[in-house]
Specification:
Shape: globular
Helix content: 25-40%
Order of helices and strands: HEEEEEEHHHHH
Low-confidence stretches: none
Structural class: alpha+beta
Number of strands: 6
């Protein structure tokens, strides 16, 4: 089980098909059709004003991957309503840091830690191991901190919708 492999698959196979959806959100565990899956949300993102950061729109697509082997299950066109939201799909949700800031050492380090942490806790989550168990508690604590640092605030309600069970298990936020 690997969210990193699902992320690679999304970048390799899904991204080129949906070039207008330039932002790939952090892959998170979710349940689709009763099965544990990994979801990557794809959103329009662009710099509309110099030095203003990256404007981010609601997800336009969701790519679902098998948690077991990171194979693509399905690409689904989505709207805010699919996540219980009423955000206008044609309006930006908010701003992200500029691409230069997102390529800074601190952000990249936390992003790598979040991806590593997701991979480390995915199997314990699937097995419903309590987050207080000694085998997983340090990884859970580290992942909470990394997710707090890297999840894009405008997308947080969408992440909560996709990863509701995972976030509840993790005790996040």
């Amino acid at each position: 089980m690997s969210v990193v492999k699902a992320r690679e698959q999304a970048r390799l196979y899904v991204g080129p098909l949906l070039r207008e959806q330039g932002h790939h959100a952090l892959p998170l565990p979710g349940v689709r059709g009763g099965a544990l899956s990994i979801c990557v949300l794809l959103c329009r993102a662009e710099i509309r004003e110099p030095r203003a950061g990256l404007s981010l729109w609601p997800p336009g697509y969701a790519a679902w991957f098998s948690a077991a082997d990171a194979r693509l299950d399905r690409i689904v066109k989505v709207s805010p309503a699919d996540f219980g939201r009423s955000d206008p799909p044609d309006q930006p949700l908010g701003q992200l840091a500029s691409p230069a800031d997102r390529m800074g050492d601190a952000h990249l380090t936390e992003l790598a830690r979040a991806l590593q942490g997701l991979d480390r806790v995915l199997d314990p989550f699937a097995r419903s191991v309590p987050t207080t168990a000694s085998e997983v508690a340090p990884d859970v604590a580290a992942l909470r901190a990394s997710l707090a640092a890297v999840l894009e605030p405008p997308l947080f309600p969408y992440y909560q919708s996709v990863a509701e069970r995972f976030f509840a298990w993790l005790g996040f936020p």
